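Here's a chain:
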Amino acid sequence: MLSVTARKIRDHGRERSAVGVGRVYTGFLVSYPVVGRGMVIFRDPNGHRMITTPVRRVLIDPDEETLYVETENSVYHLTLHQVVAPAPLDDSEQQKL
């Protein structure tokens, strides 16, 4: 999983022009955005998530910490923070398995 901050920088929607532009989403990206599939950002441990319309294209900045993701309705600027590995199990948790 990747810790990520996504900021909506453009809205292509016709019905609700400019709604949510500038809004910031912070959470975890399970996989890199894939063309043709919706992008999912898990926003908190309770399962709240932000799901986009299908991705049209992904542009990677040379610093490899920034992505621009264009979906059918919007464009997002993603800043990747770090890879989050699952916490190792301690001895008592391993015995339960």
Summary: The two ends are 23 Å apart (CA to CA). The mean pLDDT is 80. DSSP finds one helix and six strands in the chain. Helices lie at 91-96.
